[in-house]
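pinging the channel bc i need a second pair of eyes. not urgent but kinda urgent?? the chain im working w is below, pasted from the shared doc
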Amino acid sequence: MDDRIALIEAGGTKFIVGVGDASRQIHARTRIDTTRPEETIPAAIDWLRQQGSDYSAVGIASFGPLDLDPASPSWGHITRTTKPHWSNADVAGPFGRALGCPVAIDTDVNGAALAEWSWGAGQGTNASLYLTIGTGVGGGAVVGGRLIHGVSHPEMGHIRMPRHPADGDFAGICPFHGDCLEGLASGPAIQARWGASLSELPSDHIGHQIIAWYLAQAAATFQAILEPARIILGGGVMGTPGLLDHVRAEAATASGGYFAGVAEEIVVSPALGDNAGLLGALALTRIDGNLHRVPDMRA
C-alpha cells in the first residue's frame, strides 16, 4: 500500500484508530475506549504498529480544547477539559515519536468540517460550517478552502443563548458558562432536564420544540456571522427523528426571514457517515503546512 497514513479520531468516549491512504480508502480500523492517556494512547500506538511501520503521516482529529500553536511547547496537548485525567495530556507527541513521521492535529469538529467540505455535504461551496450536537457541542467552519482559526480553534458550543420561554428554570450544565449552547442543547443537558435522550421522549414532548429552537437560534447566529452555504448538523442528538426538519422551520423564524425559502438547502445532515471522523483526520494531513515533526524531547 502506498502512502499509508495513521488516522486517529480521538473522542471523549472512544478512540477510533485506522489506516488510510491518499485516495481516501480506509484499510483497517479499531475502537479503543478512552480511559486515561497513559492507557488509551499506547493501546492506539500498539495497534497501529501491528498494521505496519511505514506511515508517511499521522492525522489526529481530537476532542479538546487543544493547543494548536506549533511554536508552543504544549502544541498538540489537550488543555483545560472536563474529561477526567486528560487536561494537559500530550496527544500528538506520542504518535509522532512512536511512528517516526509528521503529525497533523486539530479538533474533531474541525476535521469533520474539513472532510465534509472536501468530500461531503459541503463539497462545491466556498463556505460551510459543521456543528456537532452530542455529548458536547462544537463547531468548525471552512471558508475559501481554509479552516477558521484565531488565537486557537473556534469554541462554537460556548456561544451564549437566548432562553426559550418554557425553559427558564433550567440553569444549564456547562461547568464554565452554565447556559451556553452546549449547556442547553447537548445530550447530557437533555438528560439532565428530562431523564431521557431526545429520541426517547414522546414525539409531542416539549423537549423537541425547545432543543430545535436552541439549534435554530445557533444556526441563525452563525449564518449572520459567516453566511455559509451549508450548515451541517451532526452528532448523536441529531439522530432524533424529525429534529432536522424542526430546526429548519425554527431557523426560518429565528432569522427574521433571512432563511425563508432556503433553510432546507442550507441546514443539512452530514454525508460521510461512519467514515467522517477518520476522513476528518485524513483531511487535516492534506493542508499545506499542517504537518509538523515532533521533537524527540520537549521542554
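so The chain has two domains: 4-108+276-285, 121-271. and Strands lie at 4-10, 14-20, 26-33, 55-62, 103-107, 127-133, 137-143, 146-147, 230-234, 267-268. — does that match what u expected or am i reading it wrong
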